[in-house]
Amino acid sequence: MFERYNKVQRAVLETTLRIINQKELQATSMSLIAKESKVSTGSIYHYFQSKEDIINELYKAIVTFTGDVVMKDIDANQPVQARFRRVWENIIGVSMKHPEGFQFIEQYSFSPYIYEESKLEAYKVGWCNPVEKLYSEAIEQKLFIDMEPKLLVQMHYGSIVYLVKADLQKYIELTEDAVQHVITSAWKSVLRS
């Protein structure tokens, strides 16, 4: 997830993500990050001004990585339904393959720790904006009901989030068949009658 960062930044981001998922954000201090990452506090401050800067960089890194994975292999020449299916397969796949990133985003996306400019930047580089465009295209083609694309995407994402969380907690098992049924149900739920 953090391949585009140098060794020190990567150690700080990976450690911060692990600590936050284990202990919560408020219990994550700069001294704990330094101790656990084995990076001196001075080196951390060379790259990040504060704990909030680390949190925001972590947020942007995860959203950018997730966006790249979700939009991989999406061919604009394919029919809308094929792209829809691939996007949701990718979202579920990356969420389950990288549960620590998924949990962080789900828990802290609306946190006051995340700066507005970080949220806006993430919206541009993440998967939400391109998926909304896909839904807009489906609406223009009279495939989907006439509703705000952002609302439709978030409605589907909310269902996916619950299912992934339930799988991660071993409450349900999201098998490949189950994933395909969920995506088919999501598609059918917004089709014009």
Automatic annotation (TrEMBL):
Residues 29-48 bind DNA. Residues 6-66 form the HTH tetR-type domain. SUPFAM superfamilies: Homeodomain-like, Tetracyclin repressor-like, C-terminal domain. InterPro entries: Homeodomain-like_sf, HTH-type_TetR-like_transc_reg, HTH_TetR, Tet_transcr_reg_TetR-rel_C_sf, TetR-like_HI_0893_C. It holds the Pfam family TetR_N. It comes from the Bacteria. Keywords: DNA-binding. Transmembrane segments: none annotated. PANTHER family: HTH-TYPE TRANSCRIPTIONAL REGULATOR RUTR. This is TetR/AcrR family transcriptional regulator. It comes from Paenibacillus solisilvae. The lineage of its organism: Bacteria, Bacillati, Bacillota, Bacilli, Bacillales.
